[in-house]
Design brief:
The protein has a domain of 194 residues: Nucleotidyltransferase, domain 5. Helices cover 41% and strands 12% of the residues. It has 13 helices and six strands. Strands 1-4-3-2-5-6 form a six-stranded mixed beta sheet, sandwiched between helices. The relative contact order is 0.14. One of its GO terms (biological process) is DNA replication, removal of RNA primer.
Length: 334
């Protein structure tokens, strides 16, 4: 008796789920999922051959532009003598591949663990926003450069005999190449635009980074009490209508967004400015309450002066869930 279309479909579904399970096992995001407010490093085992032969290493990232989710920096390395074998795995720029193709290629890289290794730095949205919004500015390019440098140093510290490093540029390629060459004088560094389409080792790093980001976004653990979260947030890029709709839906007028959102992106800041409650943040340069009055605004300090159970306008006051969830109460006297 022949196999029906339904049976074939069920078999394909089971095979797909099995492949996804093996990929998830190869790239365990458990540490990051346990606390996605901080950055996390994931690594494969280092093949013995990589500690015995001259190796090449590629660097690329995934998720630089989205307003949602982490940015992931990835490296992939293999012996120089194995470049053709790596090319034989048919790796390509992750942006040109479907999700299913990326998953398959990552599995191929994992299966080639006798000569291929990788490492990832997952930069949480909270880390990105905190760095970019701190008083001493730390922009995205500097953050990206430091993530790449940290991963190269990890490979060296792990005993990988690095000889060549290929990098997809962030900022001017010549300046970035000079920076890396000065930091790692013993390495032959090549920085090029679109390096992920020029060098297979960079393509491999691109695939690892993109697969990790896809899994992190899909399995995002919302620590905030948002109820049943709508996960139909589109691509996460600022111009995506679905992403914009999601940002509007989950904007809290007082506390802004869950940590899934990069507060430092202009898309998020503009929505908070337009839809959130206006508040003047006190600093050392000017008396906060006077400045707030001058700007027809509200000083943060006034919230600490209000009597329990009423607002500045005398209306009944109900504590925000931020306070009730943490069992916080107003302090009237010291």
């Amino acid at each position: 008796m022949g196999i029906t279309d339904a049976e074939i479909y069920q078999f394909v579904q089971i095979e797909s789920e099995a492949n996804l399970l093996s990929i998830t096992t190869a790239m365990d995001l458990g540490d990051f999922e346990a606390d996605n407010s901080v950055s996390c490093r994931l690594t494969s085992a280092v093949p013995e051959v990589c500690m015995a032969e001259d190796c090449c290493l590629g660097i690329d990232e995934a998720g630089r532009g989205p307003v949602l989710g982490p940015m992931v920096y990835g490296i992939c390395f293999c012996p120089v003598s194995k470049k053709e074998e790596l090319r034989g795995l048919k790796v390509a720029d992750s942006k040109t591949l479907t999700e299913a193709e990326r998953e398959t290629l990552f599995q191929n890289l994992s299966d080639a663990k006798d000569f291929v290794g990788w490492a990832l730095q997952i930069l949480s949205p909270n880390t990105i926003s905190t760095c970019m919004l701190q008083r001493s500015k730390y922009n995205l390019n500097a953050l990206s450069h430091d993530a790449a440098i940290g991963l190269v140093q990890y490979a060296l510290d792990s005993g990988v005999q690095l000889k060549e490093v290929f990098v997809d540029t962030v900022g001017p390629a010549e300046k970035y190449e000079e920076k890396l060459s000065q930091r790692f004088p013993g390495l032959e560094v090549t920085v090029r635009p679109k390096a992920d389409s020029l060098f297979p080792i960079v393509s491999a790093a691109s695939i690892c980074a993109k697969v990790a980001r896809d899994h992190a976004v899909k399995g995002w653990n919302f620590t905030e009490d948002l109820g049943e979260v709508d996960t139909d947030y589109g691509s996460g890029y600022p111009g995506d209508p679905k992403t914009k709709a999601w940002l509007l839906k989950y904007l809290d007028p007082v506390f802004g967004y869950p940590q899934f959102v990069r507060f430092s992106w202009s898309t998020a800041k503009n929505l908070m400015d337009g839809k959130g409650f206006p508040v003047y943040w006190d600093d050392d340069e000017e008396d906060g309450e006077k400045a707030a009055v001058r700007q027809n605004n509200t000083s943060m300090l006034t919230y600490f002066n209000r009597s329990t159970g009423s607002t500045a306008h005398g209306a009944a006051h109900q504590s925000h869930r931020f306070f009730t969830e943490r069992r916080l109460q107003g302090l009237n006297t010291l």
